[in-house]
Amino acid sequence: MSREIVAAARELLDALDTVLGDHAPAPSLLHGDLWSGNWGATGDGTAVIFDPAVYFGDRETDIAMTRLFGGFGPDFYAAYEAAWPLPGGWQRRAELYNLYHLLNHFNLFGAGYVAAVRSAIDAGMRRH
Questions:
Q1: pLDDT value for 128
Q2: Which residues of the chain have pLDDT under 50?
Q3: Which residue from 47, 83, 89, 114 puts its CA 20 to 30 A from 7's CA?
Q4: What is the 3-state secondary structure (H, E, C) of the chain?
């Protein structure tokens, strides 16, 4: 990874107290690996999720992951917002939460993830 990206990541790391300082989510039971490859439907159309990596954390991490690799349909997000609206600033935090997964994919699969890593770092540093 380039020195420029490493420097930007260090800058983001130094700013995390400012970026996340006011965010105090209630712990939620999370799927932990909720991406488009981990859901399906039964023969009668009932939605199912599988391959959980369950833990308690910020519910925004699951929502962030749903957007990382293709996303879910607009009906999913509309239903989620109707049931439990996300607080302001969730989009920025989603980029930060997904940075972990992007760095993991960079580590496992190589340089094809560099642009996505840089984009997530830049989004995390933007002021909203």
A1: 39
A2: 128
A3: 89
A4: CCHHHHHHHHHHHHHHHHHHCCCCCCCEEECCCCCHHHEEECCCCCEEECCCCCEEECHHHHHHHHHHCCCCCHHHHHHHHHHCCCCCCHHHHHHHHHHHHHHHHHHHHCHHHHHHHHHHHHHHHCCC
Please identify every residue annotated as catalytic. Answer: 33
Looking at domain 1-23+88-128, which CATH architecture does it have?
Up-down Bundle (1.20)
The hierarchical CATH code for the domain 26-86 is 1.10.510.10
Same fold, 1-23+88-128 and 26-86: no
